Amino acid sequence: MNSMTGAGGLITGGVDAHTDTHDAAALDEQGRLLGVRTFATTPDGNRALLAWLERFGRVGVIGVESTGSYAAGLVRYLRSRDIDVVEVNRPHAHTRRRRGKSDPIDAEMAARQALAGHATAVPKRTDGIVEAIRHLRLARDSAVKARTAAFNQLTEIVVTTPDELRQHLDQRKSTRGKAALCARLRPDLERLHEPQHAAKLALRSLARRVAELDREIAALDQRLAPLVATAAPRTTQLLAVSTGHTGQLLITAGENIERLHSDGAFAALCGASPIPVSSGRRDRYRINHGSDRDANRTLHMIAVCRLRYCQRTRAYAQRRLAEGKTKREIIRCLKRYIARELFHTLSADLADLDRPAPSRAAPAIAVSINCGAGPIGRNRRRA
User: Fold this and answer.
1) What is the 3-state secondary structure (H, E, C) of 292-308?
2) pLDDT score for 4
3) Which among 77, 125, 188, 280 is least buried, having the fewest CB atoms inside 10 angstroms?
4) Start and end residues for every CATH 3.30.420.40 domain found in the chain
5) 3-state SS assignment for residue 86
């Protein structure tokens, strides 16, 4: 599109990101559209995009769609140049009904959301240890899903195998035990036209796939453990918080956890913030269904484990039961307390990543929260 000449004032940018191209729009302080242009998703394209915006004046803020995927490289470049970036959602359906749908329109709408102050979310950092943990966890999660699919398929094939082979495999009751027997099967490759030998080959293939995926998952766990311990040493020492739980919560919060203004914002991000559903004489809350469900599952597993092994948490549950709360409501309360505890420990851990290591190992901020079952106390100590 043709570009208007800027007056040299404060410029607000908007970017609609895609795989191969980024569409950028520029607005002046009064909201007038100065121009729209398309750039390649390459380092040279990122530099050209910023240079084009700076032709109109000083860049104040840029609203970007898909900051965690298509625009991740662009956001890293803009931050390296000290440009303020905010994350925007796609245009509302009402806007698309009135204006239509195109990449230039989406870029303009992103700029207008940033200019109006509707878009205030700070994108996650993707240039640190938390991003490295995310990459390894993605590979691990896909391996776990593939292993589960292989186990399910092995179980289904065993059900339909010939009686003799099925009787042999029924010596083991567990699925993993059956997989161990299947790995030692010896099909006759010259008689694959017979169902028994074809089943043996299929079962052996699935069993070996499971074994290979077991080795892959173990190798990834071995690499993840020191990374998570380095990023969040305090959090991994909490009761019922494993390396996997900590890794997921680090990914949910992001390395720049200061973008979350309070533990309530972190709880909302994890789906642990209470939503009122009161009516008449009923006064109750429900869980927040919109959020990171993986983080919510992590909080749920921590709460269940503490209910089993933490005496203080069990006493808290008994007290709330006596007050008339259901078990589901008690777990929701615990998840909110646990989210508060984890937010403070993660904040302290991630703050230590950005400061040089002190000569004496003493945390600047120590947070003590007992399983979400009692009052929360903060003990501050100067290093």
Assistant:
1) CHHHHHHHHHHHHHHHH
2) 53
3) 280
4) 10-116
5) strand
Distance CA 52, CA 30 (A): 19
State how far the alpha carbon of 72 is from the alpha carbons of 69, 84, 108, 256, 350, in Å.
5, 14, 19, 15, 21
Question: Average pLDDT, stretch 360-374?
Answer: 48
- Check if the beta carbon of residue 136 is closer than 8 Å to that of residue 146: no
Which among 256, 222, 251 is positioned nearest to 133, based on CA atoms? 251
Q: What is the pLDDT of residues 313-357, one digit of tens each?
A: 999 999 999 999 999 889 989 999 999 999 999 999 999 987 765
pLDDT, one tens digit per residue, over 256-305 is 999 999 999 999 999 998 888 888 777 777 777 778 999 999 999 999 99
* CA atoms of 63 and 163, how far apart (whole Å): 64
Contact 217, 211 (CB under 8 A): no
Write down the pLDDT at residue 373.
Answer: 47
Is residue 206 over pLDDT 60? yes
Q: Which tokens sit at 307?
A: 């209910």
Phi, psi of 36 (to 5 degrees): -135, 135
Please compute the mean of the pLDDT values over residues 228-244 and round it to a whole number: 95
Pairing of strands 84-87, 58-64: parallel
CATH T-level topology, domain 10-116: Nucleotidyltransferase; domain 5 (3.30.420)
Please name which of 156, 157, 158, 154 lies closest in space to residue 168, comparing C-alpha atoms.
158
What is the torsional sign of CA 131, 133, 134, 139?
positive
Does 379 score more than 50 pLDDT?
A: no
What's the Cα-to-Cα distance from 73 to each of 17, 21, 126, rounded to whole Å? Answer: 11, 12, 9
Pairing type for strands 10-17 and 21-27 reads antiparallel
